[in-house]
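Saturday, quiet lab. Running sequence design on the structure tokens for the scaffold JK sent over.
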């Protein structure tokens, strides 16, 4: 997806407050436009602004979760982990969202401990497996 030229310039100049403003405006008007958000996140990574990128993805995940768009929230967080796998903040935020979304699961803490996303050597793989596991209820069989 091609971003607006003005926004691209703001990212290249690391005018991160203006980028955040555009991000927040888009989050209010079209929070499910994940393609746009991920394009901005990729550009932020390209200019070595991963810390701000993870903050913005966390804000988006919160907004999506509040709108009961959990799969999109997890998609955004997963892409954040793919873009900045070594940043602990995005991993912690992902676990926080898992706890919020699946708060009623009796085995939740066991599942979180098993996949150990916060300290995983391969966080992208860990989040994939965690999401796959959480599709099934406690004690449900699957093939």
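Result came back. Writing it out in full:
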């Amino acid at each position: 997806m091609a971003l607006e030229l003005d926004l691209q310039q703001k990212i290249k100049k690391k005018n991160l407050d203006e980028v955040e403003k555009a991000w927040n405006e888009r989050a209010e008007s079209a929070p499910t436009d994940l393609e746009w958000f991920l394009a901005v996140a990729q550009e932020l990574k390209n200019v070595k602004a991963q810390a701000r990128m993870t903050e913005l993805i966390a804000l988006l995940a919160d907004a999506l979760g509040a709108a009961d768009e959990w799969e999109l929230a997890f998609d955004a967080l997963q892409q954040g982990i793919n873009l900045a796998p070594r940043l602990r903040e995005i991993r912690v935020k992902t676990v926080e969202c898992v706890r919020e979304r699946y708060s009623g699961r009796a085995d939740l803490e066991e599942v979180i401990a098993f996949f150990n996303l916060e300290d995983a050597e391969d966080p992208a793989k860990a989040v994939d497996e965690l999401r796959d596991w959480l599709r099934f209820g406690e004690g449900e069989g699957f093939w």
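Notes for JK: Helices lie at 5-12, 16-29, 34-46, 50-66, 70-83, 88-101, 108-115, 123-134. The radius of gyration is 16 Å. Ask whether to fix the surface positions before the next round.
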